[in-house]
């Protein structure tokens, strides 16, 4: 069924009313008055929301009710519209049951001059991409995989700062909202007890002094079980469900990450904003002070991670010299005594 924008807006308004009165039965008559429409039209809209997978009760002669909204895990188009409502940066969220890669979707839109602030989220990726050409595995309907279109006012060489901001945003949400002590490994891997829970990929196009667009993609393992991970990945990866034993509703998690990330990236080109980002990042980053092995292309270096530069690069003290890595793979070795 195709949806026109009136229908989209009406679904959103209806869902908003039900959610803000969670647990209460709202008569069809009241909803019809609020939406300036007929009870029959409300009935149709409710059915459309149910078809999106939302659990709405229709109580004969009484009305409609949404219960346990905060536990909703289905990423329905109207629900994600509701989740980004009021976000400072993100105004459009496209949902795909299945897609090759949300990165590719957003890149295509960027090349067609789409404005910044679009998010593509998918329940399943057939060609999910990780850093350095790796594949990004997923289990249908269990994880959070999304990409965001940004047009930051910054130089191409500063793109790593976006990566840092994305990692910091996820790290902060995991800590503040889910009480998970995750490790933020430079530049933006998030680990729990040494196993990867989240990966971030930023790609950009531009000239040396100006970014045309950046696409930042986040893959967060949310409700994957050990069985979903399989034997190989189980040794190196984990999920929020495995760590907390709780199923985590993905729409609210998405909202929280987008809220924190948009706060961090608003005006990201401004000096004070970069300074604050770096201050927060350095404080949260578990790589600083650690013995690390850094792999860059075919080369390997070992040393102590000392600092993060103004451009988000990692400074490592090796036996011979202090080296600066703009991008590389880092392995944490033991904690420094
Ligand atoms: C990494 O750690 O290697 C980065 C992984 C990034 C995965 C996300 S999932 C959403 C977006 N779409 C992709 O194809 N990749 C990113």
Number of helices: 10
- Gross geometry: elongated
Strand content: 25-35%
Instruction: Report mean pLDDT, rounded to a whole number.
Output: 93
Number of strands: 14
The helix/strand order is HHHEEHEHEEHEEEEHHHHEEEEE
Strand order of the largest sheet: 3-4-5-9-8-7-6
Bound molecules: biotin
Radius of gyration: 22 Å
Approximately how much helix is present in the residues? 25-40%
Q: Which structural class is indicated by helix and strand composition?
A: alpha+beta
In whole angstroms, the N-to-C terminal distance is 62 Å
Largest sheet: 7 strands, mixed
Model regions low in confidence, pLDDT < 50 over at least 5 residues: none
What does this structure look like?
This protein is an alpha+beta fold. It has 10 helices and 14 strands. It has helices at 5-20, 28-34, 39-51, 77-84, 102-111, 159-178, 226-234, 240-244, 250-265, 271-284; strands spanning 56-59, 63-66, 92-96, 118-122, 144-150, 183-185, 189-192, 195-207, 210-220, 290-296, 299-308, 314-317, 322-325, 329-335. Strands 3-4-5-9-8-7-6 form a 7-stranded mixed beta sheet, with helices on both faces. The longest helix has 20 residues, at 159-178. The relative contact order is 0.11. The mean pLDDT is 93. The structure holds biotin. The site of biotin (BTN) has 20 residues, from α5, β5, β8 and β9.
